[in-house]
Amino acid sequence: MTSIGQIIDENSSRTLAPAAVASQVALMSVISVAAVITFNVLRPKNKAIYEPKVKYHVGDKKPPPISDSLFGWLPPLYRTTEPELLEKFGLDAVTFLRFTRMMRSIFSAVAFICCAILLPIDAVYNLKHVPSSGRNILSMLTIRDVEGSYLFAHVAITYMISVVVMFFVWRHWKVMLHLRQQWFRSPEYMESFYARTLAIMHVPKKYQSDAGIRAIFDSVQVPYPTTSVHIGRKVGRLPELIDYHNDIVRQLEQVLVTYLKDGKIAKERPTIRIGGFLGMGGVKKDAIDFYTAKLQRVNKAIEDYRQEIDTRQAENYGFASMAAVPYAHTVANMLRKKHPKGTDVTLAPNPKDIIWANMNKSPADLFQKKVVGFLLLVLVCFFNTIPLFIISILANLSSISAYVGFLGAWSNASPGSFAFVSGVLPPSISALFGVALPIVMRYLSRFQGALTHSRLDRAVVARYFAFLVISQLVIFTLIGVGFIAAEQVVSEIGEHVSFADIINSLHSLPATINSTYINQSSYWLTFFPLRGFLTVFDLAQIVNLVWVFIKKKIFGRTPRDIREWTQPAEFEYAIYYSILLFMGTVAFVFAPLAPLVALAGAVVFWASSWVYKYQLMFVFVTKVESGGRLWNMIVNRLLVSVVLMQLLMVLTIGLQYGFKSFLWLTTVPPILFIVAFKVWIDKTFYHEFLYYIPSREELEHAQIHSSRADASGNRIERRFGHPALHMELFTPMLHANMMPLLGEVYKGPIGSDKAKLGEYGGKKLSAQVIDCGIKFASVEQRDLEYDPALYKRDRGEVDWDARSMASAAIFGHRPSESASAYHQKANFYATGGESGRSSPAHMNYSRSNTQTEIELSRLGQSADNLPLLHDRGYDYPMNRQTPPPVPNPPRFTSPSPPYVPGGGVHLSPAEDFREAPLHRPYTPSREGLNYATDPPQYNIASRGARYPV
Predict the structure, then answer these.
(1) 380 and 437 in contact (C-beta within 8 Å)?
(2) Cβ pair 870, 352 in contact under 8 A
(3) 712/823 Cα distance (integer angstroms)
(4) Smallest Cα–Cα separation from 747: which of 332, 288, 429?
(5) Residue 239 near residue 724, CB atoms below 8 Å
(6) How far apart are CA 407 and CA 402, in angstroms?
(7) DSSP secondary-structure letter at 280?
(8) Residues 836 and 711 sit within 8 Å (Cβ to Cβ)
């Protein structure tokens, strides 16, 4: 009878058997090919899913022509060059694709070096020195059983890998710096208002006014004066109420569409359970009546809140515009470490990139949220390590089958199915449990006070990548060591060894670490085929197709769903960067130990580079352009991955020869090379990457914007005013064929009216009004998809002064209905002279006096100095000198008294949507307002009116 010790010896030599690895590779290869075939068949007939950017693009930035033939999508991929990609899809997309190309180049070279040199050496050594019973085809191609001078071939490989990485990183960094500087000088960036605007955070109480913002800049004597300033205004719970209102509208639309599916009333009205748990307990209510009553209540709450809100109260943040983009970058660079009056002055982000809920957080609030968020993040990461135990058990099925009866019987009865399951399940479960984690990390990063969505992306990359490395590399290896230790203890117990001898024998445990993490290379050989399949699966978009089918056939799709579904989706840069970086880390770590892992990584990176190029060209868009701001961050983590590879080689040599021999010191120099290389690229590239550094000629020919122009258009307040002050509330929408049934859904009088919808660019649609006053817009079949002209307006790079006027021509508005706020303010500002939001310093200053300041100013590395692309401001009616007229009553009058706007709330005669109130002019000379530096002699908020000094 075979002893337990013999069983352990036979099974501890591997983590996954070669048959399990072969099963996973074969399975993933087959279904990947099937996914590609599915994509080729479905693509021509489903352009809304596979090619939405052909229809929805900005300006003339249409993707290249693509054929409907079976492989017609391939020629545009290899014909489209980087300059064309940059022009049409933005620098963020180009940065991501350049990163994938860099990774495929690096691992093509690494895989070639490792496989050409190490595989023959390892195979020859195993054939000569390792008995056939102690090796298999996979172990022969690793460093596991290699000893003696052969080991230093692997050490030499780490030197070569380091050189390869440094070469490609230097080469691509140089190109990225050129692209970034080119982006700074592009017309789109230079003409964007936010590019010449500064954000002032943590403004002290006594400086929380427009005049106070100007006084802060006067106190530090910046070389360029501001052209306009704006202090943030309190909006209270208004944003929360608006979001709550819009969520209720979505829920009401969904239950109505489900009830009236295909223009027919269902047999039973939809219900909702209030209270209870998992569908048990609680109270059942009519879903339509419930959401209708809820919507009526929140409408009333918003109207009441808008009457009560006082937007004259200032927040602790503000914005200041400069006359030119180079001036803003220069001032931000000068003030990055000075903190004038306790504030932080940085380049302003794109307004649509700002997370407004976090803008007004005090340092104490941020500290508290960061501590709580960190603790929650640790808790989430801890619970996400639990699946690792399951994965480790599945990855060690061949080892534990000796102790679990049914596993042993299964392994003996059906070796093929046993190998298949042990090869497929571990990476599949790992991928399944990793789906929700980036979403949770993004939520926690937002909770901790991130100011922009771009900052959230950087936080997710940093945290998700760190979690993957720590959990799936470090902890997973430690779990494997635990299995080996347990096997050793069980073996010695089976041989009736005393407890003292068992404890003494554990001194050899560190030596088992070497074989443990090398054995796990077979698991990572199953991980890469799965990642390759998931990459191709993204291309096939099967999940989207299935979900749309379910929504359409079972629940029905609301007009809002269809409009949002037809637009190109946003590309999740943070998640894809994290996954690619983790794959690169795994491939680097195992490249000198098990070269086949590096080869598998190279194959997946080649597939990823082409798939993601197609997706960014034809499917996905960038949420907010950041000008490739993530590049430095991902390169840093790539270099960390190389250092991890070198540290593991230090451990390998140290365990083989013992750390007392000092032979492990031969593996240390590459680490020092990488550290020195990192310092060098920071000094060479990084500071120029953050800021626009103008030349003397560029300064002389810079486009100068006058204070009068900024003030007359009130540009800074329209761009950087809180969105809740002008945000439109959703109007419930239904399909036109369902509208005749509305009278049967709501028992009572139904009135006819028109609804002006912001979602349709202010277009008026037929509507019906139920007796409680809620208006339902009727959407015809031809109006369901998102209008390409609207899409161009919403995502275009045209400055909002021009965009607002152009939208009237695009959508046929009368002048009185134009979305532009400019013409509403023109007469008001015409009498204000030059003393509006202009700088007290005259713009006719000498440029020659400021050149030295620019040349000598050092460039900072603040992570918050993020110039972003795609300027988009906010159009809303501004203050008026006379109270707005009360609109004429609609054709249908609700039984409830009509709401008459008061104070700061009004309804324009041409508009049916509600608007938030705007702050009224006030004099900043309130009680308790003191300045360390005397403020200018102008009432900034009153736009030209003087006040007594």
Answers:
(1) yes
(2) yes
(3) 10
(4) 288
(5) yes
(6) 8
(7) B
(8) yes
- Closest among 177, 185, 321, 226 to 694, alpha carbons compared: 185
Secondary structure class of 816 (helix, strand, coil): helix
Q: What is the DSSP letter of 475?
A: I
What is the per-residue pLDDT for 97? Answer: 96
Q: Contact at 8 Å (CB) between 575 and 582? A: no
Q: Identify the DSSP state of 277.
A: B
Say how far apart CA 575 and CA 293 lie, in whole Å: 40
pLDDT at 165: 96
| Residue entry with tokens 């605007």 | 197
CA distance 251 to 256: 9
Q: What's the rounded Cα separation, in Å, for the pair 362 and 372?
A: 15
Cβ 896 vs Cβ 774: under 8 Å: no
Burial of 714 (0-12, 13-18, 19+ CB in 10 A): buried
Q: How is residue 606 written in tokens?
A: 């080649």
b/e code 555-593 from CB counts within 10 Å (16+ = b): ebbbbbbbbebbbbbebbbbbbbbbbbbbbbbbbbbbbb
Q: Which candidate, 713, 718, 720, 719, places its Cα nearest to that of 943?
A: 713
Amino acid present at 476 = F
- 908 within 8 A of 876, measured Cβ to Cβ: no
The tokens describing 104, both together, are: 């495929």
Residue 772 is predicted with a pLDDT of 83
d(CA 631, CA 640): 14
Q: Taken in order 589, 591, 594, 599, is the CA torsion positive or negative? A: positive
Q: How far apart are the first and last CA of the chain?
A: 104
Rounded Cα gap, residues 871 and 405, in angstroms: 66
- CA distances for 286 relative to 252, 291, 651, angstroms: 11, 9, 66
Token pair, residue 665, equals 């010191």
313: DSSP letter: S
- Check residue 423 and give its pLDDT: 57
Q: Which residue has the tokens 């908020």?
A: 941
Residue 767 phi/psi, 5-degree rounding, is -145, 160
Burial class (CB in 10 A: 0-12, 13-18, 19+), 764: middle
Q: Within 10 Å of residue 949's Cβ, how many Cβ atoms? A: 7
* Distance of alpha carbon 492 from alpha carbon 779, whole angstroms: 77
Which residue is associated with the tokens 């490792």? Answer: 114
Kindly state the tokens that stand for 660: 């007392």
Place of tokens 């795994």: 586
Judge contact between 633 and 458, C-beta under 8 A.
Answer: yes
Two structure tokens written together for 401: 């089958």
State which amino acid sits at residue 77: L
Output the pLDDT for position 573: 93
In the chain, the amino acid numbered 890 is P
Asked whether 335 and 943 are in contact (CB, 8 A), the reply is no
- Compute and round to an integer the Cα radius of gyration of the chain: 32
Where helices occur in 321-362 by DSSP H, the ranges are 325-335
| Residue 424 near residue 17, CB atoms below 8 Å | no
Closest by Cα among 890, 888, 898, 889 to 752:
890
What are the two backbone dihedrals, phi and then psi, of residue 144, each rounded to the nearest 5 degrees? Answer: -55, -50
User: Helix and strand tally (H, E) in the chain?
Assistant: 39, 12
Which ranges of the chain have pLDDT less than 50?
1-15, 797-949
Write the DSSP symbol of residue 761.
Answer: T
Distance CA 281, CA 274 (A): 9
Q: Is the dihedral of CA 160, 165, 168, 170 positive or negative?
A: negative
Structure tokens of 269?
């009205």
Residue 382, both tokens: 């801890």
3-class state of residue 229 by DSSP: strand
How far, in Å, CA of 85 to CA of 792, rounded? 18
pLDDT recorded at residue 11? 39
3-state DSSP of 633-665 = HHHHHHHHHHHHHHHHHHHHHHHHHCHHHCHHH
Q: Are 650 and 668 in contact (CB under 8 A)?
A: yes
Distances (CA, A) of 221 to 193, 207, 214: 23, 17, 11
